[in-house]
Structures are given as C-alpha cells and as structure tokens.
Here is the input.
Amino acid sequence: MEQDLTESPVPELEAPVEVLTPEEYVTTLVKRAKGAAGRLSSLPTAVKNQALEAMADGLEEHEAELLAENEKDLEQFEATPERKALGDRLRLTAERIQEMAAGIRDIARLPDPLGDTPKMWTRPNGMQVGRMRVPIGVIGIIYEARPNVTADSAALCLKSGNVCILRGGSEALHSNVAIARVLSESAEKAGVPAGAITFVDRAEREVVQLLLKQDRYIDLIIPRGGESLMKTIAEHATIPVLKHDKGVCHTYVDVDADPEVAERICLNAKVQRPSTCNAMETLLVHHSIARTWLPLLVEKLTAAKVDVRGCAKTCQLCPEVTPAADDDFGREFLDLVLAIKVVKNMDEALEHIATYGSQHTEAIVTKDYARAMRFLREVDAGAVLVNASTRLNDGYQFGLGAEIGISTSRLHARGPMGLEELTCSKFVVLGSGQIRE
Amino acid sequence: MEQDLTESPVPELEAPVEVLTPEEYVTTLVKRAKGAAGRLSSLPTAVKNQALEAMADGLEEHEAELLAENEKDLEQFEATPERKALGDRLRLTAERIQEMAAGIRDIARLPDPLGDTPKMWTRPNGMQVGRMRVPIGVIGIIYEARPNVTADSAALCLKSGNVCILRGGSEALHSNVAIARVLSESAEKAGVPAGAITFVDRAEREVVQLLLKQDRYIDLIIPRGGESLMKTIAEHATIPVLKHDKGVCHTYVDVDADPEVAERICLNAKVQRPSTCNAMETLLVHHSIARTWLPLLVEKLTAAKVDVRGCAKTCQLCPEVTPAADDDFGREFLDLVLAIKVVKNMDEALEHIATYGSQHTEAIVTKDYARAMRFLREVDAGAVLVNASTRLNDGYQFGLGAEIGISTSRLHARGPMGLEELTCSKFVVLGSGQIRE
Here is the structure.
C-alpha cells in the first residue's frame, strides 16, 4: 500500500482508499510523511525555490480544474444566511488562484531560515558554540474552510524544510484535494521527496483524532479554527500544539490621547476587516476624554454600520448606543459589533484587559510617555501596541514575511509565525579535543 | 483556606492539610500560584536579586534543620543495592547545602532576561517593532530524588519572573519541604509575593495527575525523571511540556581521527560521570582505524572498570570484550557500560545514530573538514559536537549560566535550558498613529 501511495501521493477522490480502515489510512500517511522528513531537511535552497516556482505555475496552469473542483464544494455547501461568510471564504476565483500563486512566489523569494546560526561564541576552553536553525520535522496543520490555507501552509512548510500533513475542512474537500495534488505533483517533479506535502483526503472526524495521537511521526500540530476544533485538540492531542485561537482585542484611549489619532486608530481597528482575530472587539475610554471624544467616534462607527454596545456611562454620553450585555465584554464578535466601556483610569483599563482579554493583541492610544511605557510593560499579550491599530499585528506588517497564522500559545512562538518560527534549533560545537574537566 | 495558606505558604508536615481532598488541595495551590504571577513578573531585578541572596543565606542558616529533615528521608529510604545511586543523590551534607547556596548566588549574578529586546526594526510605515522577553508564567516542575533540584529550580524560576510549582520525589519529601519552606519564607521577607515558590507537599500520585490538567493555571510542565514519570505525563498532561528525557549519546570516531584526541574524548565521554544523560552510551568506530586504535582504547576502558560490550568485529579485534546483545545498542546504561560498533563508513554511522540515538547529544572525532561539516549538518540532535566530549553538552559549559536541565523537546528550547529559555516573548510596537491600509 505504501508503494502505491508513493507513486500517486494524493489518491483520487473518485477512487478513494476507503478500503483502508481509518487507523491503516492514518498510519500509512504519517509513515510516508516521516520518511520524507530526512531528505527534505537537507534539500538545497535552490531546489526548494524551484519547487515553489513550479507549485505556483502549477496552480495557474490548472486553474480550470481547480475552479471545477471548487464548484463541487460550493454545490454541496448549505448556504444558510449565518453561513454566508463561510461560503465567501470557500469560493475560489481566477483572482484568488493568482493570489495563491503570487503568495507562493513571495515565499520562494524569502531567505531560507535553515542553517542560520546567528552567532557563535568561544568558551574559555576554546570550543565554539552556537545555535543552528533546523526544521521542526513533520507538522500537522488542521484548519477550516479557506482553500488558500492549503497553498500557504504547504509553501511555508516546504521552504522551512518541514513536511506538512494538511487537513482542511470537509466543506472544502474537493478544492483542497485538487490544490494539494497540483502542489505536491509540481514539487515532486522539481525534486521534493514524495510525502513532503501530504493531504488528508478523508473527511471522517475519527481521522483527525487518530492524527492527534501520532506523536512518533508528527512533531507539531498547528490548529487554525473555532472552538470545537480547539476542544478536539485539547482532548486528543499527544503532540505539542501551537494554537491559533481567538482574539479578544482591546484599544485603550487614554486621557492624553490625540483625539484625531485615537479616532483613526479605533475606526481602523474595528472597521477595516472585522472578521479577523486582530480586529478590536472592545474599546476602553478614559472618562475625561470620553465626554467630548466618544460621541463623535460613535457617530462615525454608526455611519460605518457598526453595532455599538456600551456600558451605562457610554449610553449616557451617546443615547443612541444599545446597552451592552454582560457577556459583550470579553466576546469575540468577528463582525461589525463593538463593546465600549468608559473607565475611570488606566488601572481599570489594565484590569479589564487582564480579565477579559485573550492575550492576543492590545493597544493604547496616548501622548503620555510614562503611561505608554507602563502599558507596554504590564500588558500580557502576543502583541502590545502604542499608538497603532490592532490590525497591524500580522506577519507581513511586522516584516516577518508570510505567516502561517498568529499563535496564541506562549511557548516557542507567540504572535505572528513566519518561516523562522517554523524552525527549531540545535546546538553546534566546533571543538579541538575539549573534554569535561 | 486560601487565607491560611497565604500566611503559612508551606504547611507543616506535622499538621498536614489532608483535610482537603486532592482536588481541593491542588485547586488551592494553583490558584495561589497563578495569583502571584502578575506581581512577580514586574518585580524589579534588584528585589529579585536580594531575594535570591536571602534564600542562599536562609539555606545556610537552617543547615541543622535541613540535615535533620534529610535524616528522616534517609531513615525511611530502603537502601537496596540497586538503589544505592538513588540513596547517594538523596543525601544532604553541609557541603551540598553550601553548594545549593552558592548556586543560588550565581543565579543572582546572572543578567535578568526579562525586558530584553534584542532588536527593534522600523517598518516602511514608520512603526518600530521588536520582541521583548517576558516570563512564561507558572511553571510546574516534577522531578525525582535530588533535593538540590528544589533550590536550583526555585532560583531559576524566580530570576526569570516565573512562579514555580515544585513537586519532588516522595523519597525526598521531608528534605524538599524543608528546603522549599526556607526558600519561600526568605524570598517573601525580601518582597517576593506569597505563592511564587510553591511546593507540593502531598505525596499522592493523584496529586500529580491533577496538576497535569491545570491548564488554566499552569503554563508549562518540566518533568525531570525516568520512563514511568514520562509515561504519566504523556497520559495526563493538558499543559505544554518540555521534556528532560533520556540521552542515548554516540561518539563516532572517523577514519581520519587523531588517535590521541579520540582516546581522550571517548574516555571522558564514558568515564567522567557515567550516570548523566550526556555520557556516551555507544561508540561507533570506522573499521580502518579500529584495527590499531580500538584495542588500546578498550584496554584503558577496562582499566577504568568499564563493562565493554562489542559487535562481532569489535570482539574479533579485542577478544576480552563481551559480545553485545541486540538491545545494548540504543540503550541508556547510565553506568560504566559501553556498547561498541565498528562501522564500514560514515554513512553507516549516521544511519546507526538516526536509528538508535535519542537526539540528545552526538559527537564526531575527525580531522577531515568535509566529514566534520556533514556530521554537523546531517545529525539531528539537541547538540552536535565536532572533536569534543558529549559531556560538554551542558548549560554552564556552553556559557548559558545555570540550567534547569537539558530539554529533549524540539519546540521552544532544545538542549540546555538556561534563564533565557525560561522566558517567552511578546511583540512590542512603538507607533505614531499607524493603521492598516
């Protein structure tokens, strides 16, 4: 069976390998992936870059086929009103295929992180010691409906020398299988070992549960998705996990904020793309600035179709605002909804953030130096910003290049995860006969 | 109950809190620990250093009491012949107490890793971005019989701004409780929040299992111990784990090795302290050098009381050597025992290491530049050494300062874990009104 799979890495959906039990299927998949890891880790950068270019070309060449497979997913998709956003994300277009290809070419142009040894130092006994970047190994990525994640993840893993095992949402199965097949076939023709881009083409829930227990073969799981996925992971994973979980992001507008800067930042943080994890969900405003500044902001938010929900004080200042329910604070709306709370001072703001925030992205707007520094120091989050929109917490915006997502874990990588965060390190020692005295 | 614990952080063994169920006990403990994390994270370096000095002084001042408590552990310890090494590790002496105190003072002198922001870079929109080191939060350390681990771990966690929850082996319970009480009382008097050094003074296995599930309160588990501990962790932990697992370390003596250097390194790697995880367990020798070099080495190993077990070829060259059993390769002897295998070339050595090694510490001895570089590149381990003893894979030897152990995990920290590895990072952004376009 393994032999067969090697020759046809992503089996045709039309002829599924469902003769295998889920256990056999997962075992076959992960062994093949692990088998590719050694060779992939030492593949020259030039070969990897050629493979990435070939993958991008492949997507463009197979545009018609990809759109046809995507059409099958869209036909099966139940487009209820509350699933409209999901349906939008699921749809492929010629333009989106172009964007995927462009994204892969961007990754080809980024520096290869492997072998990077930022410094070596010499010990008193004369030996030189340093940390060298090496691949993590085999990374399982479990995600939901956006087919472009398939292309991004495969490209980032390949460039960083990691085998990927991709498991997308069942709604996008046809699209994902087609994308993954094009990518892995193109990569293999360019010299990448078979199995380096592995896609899980069976939709059973059991398959995910089995994958999460393959600690002998998979080194890291990156889940990207909602609460039910995170719950499955927490319950079943015996493999280290870097979560890409929810963002309940706050902006605190200090008494000393520049009113115009504060307005620009708050509107951007809420309105520019409300469905993302780094959009603002709650605005905290110092009471002294609230009186003059808040009514004007609420007016603009309302004009931008934002459903504003305020604390008692907010409602007093802006009578058109709906009173917030208790659970509106600490909630990830992912939509044009904003909770607003007027606070009596920065202590109250910090306490609110510590209590209700998800340690994802937190911002302050102020002209006061000491309070800016205090906020930076005391707020515990993946990214803490002074006088900037929470929407800027992003791999591209931070200059890391493409990212695989924004990690909400504390260990290994916190915040945007680029190529560097997809590596681990080994100590290397250049000696000349040193021993332990 | 929480009030009581705050005032008397480590309850007296004589008056145990066993009125609490294990669940209640663990909940009380972890809530108090979590409560201390915020204040500890922002404690000034000077206060932390004063606390560390006070902790060192405290151990010295309570020497008689610590020795008396240790005596209780030693009396209860069943000193069977195979547990001799364990008994040795369990014993406290005035000298060992001095060493613990000196270790803590060394940690006081190391630079504080917190707030460290190695670089900030400016983005095209003018905002400055960097990564700042912050504490991980609450770290659970689960270890076996050596009481000095209690002092080392408490000091390293305090310096790096982390709350520690320490759970030592039941054999050392009296000693550990006494040490932890002295440390936490001394630290509190110097301004460290109560709960920052928390010790688990109940020996039930169930308590460990409950601890491993406190993912709301504990951010990281560091286990240091044998296979049964690792199994418990794998089964129960819902918290990220950095393992300090076994070391099956190899030295490959290449055809182009300097015979004297090779002999010195191999003897040191096996004999200097065989009970450690970075001692050599298997020697791989190129067949061309084996003929002349191996018999002399075996003679010296035998003189050093090493039980040498060889492959067929080794036994042919050195008739006094015992034939190795199949499972002698890949085994962690932790003792004066060495497996030797003659290989036909470097490929075979690399393959043997990939198959039998535990990715802990691997070394090559060679004068050949290309093979040295290939070994460095291709071997997958926490530390890869050229012409140096495996015993040098150590925080002090590498210049990291004190270490909490040698991580065998791939993520976050691999190899010796010093203060820096006990931190995570947050992105900090200094903006001037930037928004996402």
Notes: Chain B touches chain A through 69 residues (CB under 8 Å). The domain at 2-245+417-425 of chain B is CATH 3.40.605.10 (Aldehyde Dehydrogenase; Chain A, domain 1). Residues 248 and 332 of chain B are 5 Å apart (CA to CA). The first strand of chain B starts at residue 120 and ends at 122.
